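Researcher: Next entry: WGS project CABT00000000 data, contig 2.27 (Sordaria macrospora).
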Amino acid sequence: MSVSGIIQHPEVLKLGESLPPGNPHGVSVHLPTWEDTLGWASRDRRVLDTMVTGYPRFFIPRVVERLAERILEHFAQALSESHGHEDIDTDVDLKGKHALILSTGHHALMCRRLFCQKLFPNSPKANFDILIAHWDGSITAVRENDNLPTRKKEMALGQEDIFLLPYPVEMFPTAKAFWQHTGFGISSRRASYWMESSPFLQLSPNGHRQTNYGNRPSPTPFDEDSNTQALGAIRTRLADCYSTPSLPVANDDVLLYPTGMSCIAAISSAIKSLDLPRLNGRRQPSVALFGFLYVDTLKLLSTLLGFDFKLFPFSTPLSPSPTTRSNPAQSSLSELLESGELQIDLLITEFPGNPLLQSPDLKKLWELSRRYGFALVVDDTVGGTGANVNVLGRCDAVVSSLTKMELKGSLEGKLDGGLAKLEGDVSKEEVQNERKEETDRSWFPSDIDTMNNNSRDFIHRVRHASSNANWLVQHLLRPHTSVQEVYYPRGSSTEAIYEQFRVKPTSTSTDHSLGQAEEGGYGFLVSIKFMTPAKARAFYDALDVAKGPSLGTNFTLCCAYTLLAHYRELEWAAEFGWWKIW
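Model: Predicted structure:
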């Protein structure tokens, strides 16, 4: 059914099946009918119980849930057998609790703070213990006022400690939100490795937990040199992709993260931690979101990172005009900044935006950021991660989800000299080193290897998919009588801005395997607005392709985006033009 990531017979796919089919680490899940999509969005058990997997952050992988259960069972049994054993903290209540599994202690502390805020919003007191599970089966409990212990020895690659945050069942919505909005959870590959290889999780022939596993042979550890080489190859590939004669990108400028949202969190946290003069006298930093960004970006910045945020739709004028001067309610962004009514430390935008595929005027935003002293971060995921557009010269940082086009879950960030001007006493190198130390060991080796293998020809695949999308828009979708509007960079009201950043062929390009000698396309994502909701539903049900959340796969994928992303806030989303966007 699936050859080289291409789904040959989508009509035989079943509800809840992994996409690509048969892949336990798939990046999407099949929702074949409109009714199934509604069921997923409304948390209908009919749909949820059939799901083998799902979009990695929207759906906690089954193997991760099983691992959490097994570790809690192991710890509970150890408590009952401890009789005061010095390695076991017996004052930990696990009754009726589930647990999130996170890759780093820093992420576990962030999650605990969120739990405390939700359960005791007016009190600093809360009883949430962090459990550190070690490869050898020992578990360290970190109480609410304790610091994380220093690791006694360096673990073998792939066998690093994992961090559990037990929580009462009624707090599952909060736990799920943290998992979804941050991308800090462990990957399904890491969970599978622990389940299959960690000695204390293996069952004896009679089905009971192993108690004598000290002599059990350890699995062959991952090779450090191979892992380092794979990381280096990915960084080189991305650095070459974004480099231009006027703005070369070094490998050290590329920061890799296990998930897209974890990169946005890292870049935003780094900027938040800088000693910015503007923060004097203000309780919390402020971020502006220009355009309507991905739903998780909004909630990550406001709920989890504590930014005061302002949302500006694409229709917001950037410069003064007779209309803005005569109507204060329609003030331009530059007028708000000049008057001091708007004071921000960070502005984030997408190029182009998802799902309306509009392109913000980055040159003007960059000019405003230099004049008023805020950092400008651009998410170019929909633009093709440097393959179609290169925005690096007009921002402080580029973030891009490499889950797209089978790149399986990383983000690339480039910090250039512009950010260094905002850093006060913190240098660009210090920020980069801090981020690398946190992320390189938290990215599981098998995920890195998969990323490396799948990214070798990603530019060619991005451009091939972009060419297909362009043909569909021009020859099939825009002429169709059932379609009210097609959102796509080519032919849009902001096409001229997109063209300013579209990659042009260069005679100096030498790496033809990356496709650097070819021009960029207009993207592989198309959004359609139908004449009526009934026509949208009929189209979705009749379409013979894989259907589910995500974008940028090696196979054609369709989803009812507004339902999946904003089912519980459709009227609010409609204010930004998202009504009937499928």
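Model: Note for the record: The longest helix spans residues 62-82.
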